[in-house]
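Students often ask why inverse folding is considered easier than folding. One informal answer: many sequences map to the same fold, so there is more than one right answer. In these notes we will look at a single instance of the problem. The structure comes first.
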């Protein structure tokens, strides 16, 4: 078992569609995902109606309920399409309950919206997460963002290994195809040839597991699933909780010769101490 490729399964359990936020229900769902093989949970700072907000109080309650049940890694987003200022978006960088944060490094069309991340704001976010002692997971939607990360690493001294989340499938950005993933990985490997970066696969609007399997076959270090991206278990089946999706992802990891990481293994890999 020690020779198997270990994969970090991250779950993003909360749909971006406006809805009532129930901290206890989220915590119980996350605990079931943890039992099914998830090592990290990806959350956003939302109000009781699901809208993004700088008010951390409801998320703090949710995290405390999760932590009472398990030791899953707590990652909170600094992004999302909203009218929040970059200072408001970076609130998670300064919260003790948070271990890791997502770092968005460029702007992109997402559906009918423009996901704005101008470089000044990106650099503010990098400095904030470094000041707060958070580990970044770098979300990449387009090829040029990989080059931007290299520049950020040189300017701010971001520590290796860097963890990239390669994101596919949103309308307006990289499609969820083998050619697109091959393209991204080729440039990632050339740009960080001496640094052995970690990379993961995220797919919006996923209905089947074909591309997730392909990413794992190529050696993905992480995969993200959950209602933020898709509630489909297969093309005909949508589910009411995230645990069945995580369980299928864990099964897929094993089918491709790996095994899901534990939270402690994932912390050691990405440098959470």
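Output (designed amino acids):
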């Amino acid at each position: 078992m020690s020779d198997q490729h270990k994969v970090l399964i991250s779950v993003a359990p909360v749909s971006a569609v406006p809805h009532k936020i129930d901290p206890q229900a989220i915590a119980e769902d996350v605990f079931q995902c943890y039992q099914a093989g998830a090592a990290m949970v990806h959350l956003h700072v939302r109000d009781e109606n699901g809208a993004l907000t700088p008010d951390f109080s409801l998320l703090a309650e949710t995290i405390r309920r999760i932590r009472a049940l398990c030791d899953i890694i707590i990652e909170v987003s600094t992004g999302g399409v909203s009218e929040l200022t970059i200072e408001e978006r970076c609130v998670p960088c300064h919260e003790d309950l948070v271990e890791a944060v997502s770092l968005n490094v460029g702007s992109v069309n997402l559906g009918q919206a423009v996901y704005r991340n101008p470089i000044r704001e990106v650099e503010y976010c990098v400095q904030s997460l470094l000041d707060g002692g958070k580990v970044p997971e770098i979300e990449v939607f387009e090829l040029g963002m990989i080059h931007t990360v290299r520049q950020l690493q040189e300017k701010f001294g971001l520590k290796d290994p860097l963890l990239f989340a390669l994101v596919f499938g949103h309308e307006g950005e990289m499609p969820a195809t083998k050619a697109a993933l091959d393209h991204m990985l080729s440039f990632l490997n050339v740009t960080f040839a001496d640094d052995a970066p970690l990379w993961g696969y995220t797919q919006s609007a996923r209905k089947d597991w074909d591309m997730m399997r392909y990413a794992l076959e190529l050696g993905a270090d992480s995969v993200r699933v959950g209602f933020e991206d898709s509630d489909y278990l297969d093309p005909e089946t949508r589910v009411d909780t995230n645990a069945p999706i995580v369980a299928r992802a864990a099964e897929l990891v094993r089918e491709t010769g790996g095994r899901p990481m534990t939270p402690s293994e994932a912390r050691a890999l990405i440098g959470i101490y």
